[in-house]
Amino acid sequence: MALAVLVRDWVRSRDGSIVALVVDHGLRAASADEARITIERLTGLNIPATLLSIGNLTRGSALAERARIARYEILSDACRQSGILHLLLGHHAADQMETLAMRVLRDTGPHGLACMSAIRETAGLRLLRPLLAIEPARLREFLTARGIEWVEDPSNQDMRALRSRLRQRLGSISPNETGLTQAISAIAKARAQDEAATAAELARRTIVRPEGFALLSPGRIGSAALACLVQTIGGAAYPPAPARIGAIAANPGPATIAGVRILQAGRFGDGWLIVREEAAIAAPAAVSANDLWDNRFRLRALDGCPAAAMIGKLGDDAARFRDASDLPSAVLRTLPAIRFDKFVAAVPHLGYASRDDVARMTLLFHPRRPLGGACFVPAL
Fold first, then answer.
1. Check whether domain 2-184 has CATH 3.40.50.1110, yes or no
2. CB-based contacts of 183: which residues, under 8 Å, 6+ apart?
3. What is the percent of the chain with per-residue pLDDT over 70, rounded to a whole number?
4. Angstrom distance (rounded) from CA 234 to CA 160
């Protein structure tokens, strides 16, 4: 609520506009009423509000993580559908402190201790967390002074969740007074510098091709840079294990790791070819506009998607196209192809289409993690 009021006043002074998105996870009988009350209060403050309901969450293992993923998905979808480019989130200093404790327990490494970034860039959406250095007590005082009521989420007291247990134990600790906010900021600044250096190294050393593979110049490479490269080409949600990637980065050579193959560049010259491991590629799937296949390729279909069309790897059919392309077999076999049953109707990256209804289909290399994506932004 405090974030909505602060943002309302900020955008009004700049002739902007906002909409508040209220998410109902549907996990408690009272949650729908709480969401309705929140929307009524926001509307009374001249803040347009929209209710987003998650209907498929069930209690069980990893509930907090599943709820977080579902929440971000429904928020992101709502923003894209409305043409919203900036999504502001209400995480505050206590959330940062709890995140720090969770990451210490999980031994996430130095970069994990930087906690949440003040700005996070995603495909078509920028996430902003302007309150990371503000303690929740100050936010409650802000609302109380203005006579504005808010709803306390009872889920925050559910001791089955790790974050709630940590919140109870850390409740009397002030992140700012104990210096924790400043410590997190120092770690975050170091992370930002490391990521900027990694991005610069990738810019010097790599070429990423639209067919979904990369070329790496010869010589050892930083572990972080190689991890980013492997994650991008593999379309993975997370980077590979540091121990394995470190050994390969120190002495690059033929290897298979995290669904990616490292091969000699061959006809491309010295250095290394980084290509998707064929055996790890996703199974064929029905063609659907804007879907992300194999977590790497997004389909654009100007004339719609024909019924019964499937997308999958080119595989053994690559032999038909070897004379029409200078790409090595290891790349050709991994290219996405459009099929009707077993008939190859299109291989967009080779400019091949045998039918008019697939001729205007394109497949964009659009991995989960862009290579050298936006660097971490500290809260302070």
1. no
2. none
3. 100
4. 35
Quick one: what percent of the chain has pLDDT higher than 90?
A: 74
Instruction: Write down the domain spans for the chain.
Output: 2-184, 203-278, 282-365
In which region does residue 52 sit, left (phi positive, over 0), alpha (psi from -120 to 50) or beta (all else)? beta
Q: Tokens 């969450």 map to which residue?
A: 57
SS (H, E, C) the chain: CHHHHHHHHHHHCCCCCCCEEEEECCCCCCHHHHHHHHHHHHHHCCCCEEEEECCCCCCCCCHHHHHHHHHHHHHHHHHHHHCCCEEECCCCHHHHHHHHHHHHHCCCCHHHHHCCCCEEEECCEEEECCCCCCCHHHHHHHHHHCCCCCCCCHHHHCCCCHHHHHHHHHCCCCCCCCCHHHHHHHHHHHHHHHHHHHHHHHHHHEEECCCCCEEECCCCCCHHHHHHHHHHHHCCCCCCCHHHHHHHHHCCCCEEECCEEEEECHHHCCCEEEEECHHHCCCCEECCCCCEECCCEEEEECCCCCCCEEEEECHHHHHHHHHHCCCCHHHHCCCEEEEECCEEEEEHHHCEECCHHHHCEEEEECCCCCCCCCCCCCCC
Per-residue pLDDT reduced to its tens digit, 280-322: 999 999 988 778 899 999 988 877 788 889 999 999 999 999 9
Q: Please tell me the predicted confidence (pLDDT) of residue 61.
A: 84
**Pairing state of beta strands 297-301 and 272-276?**
unpaired
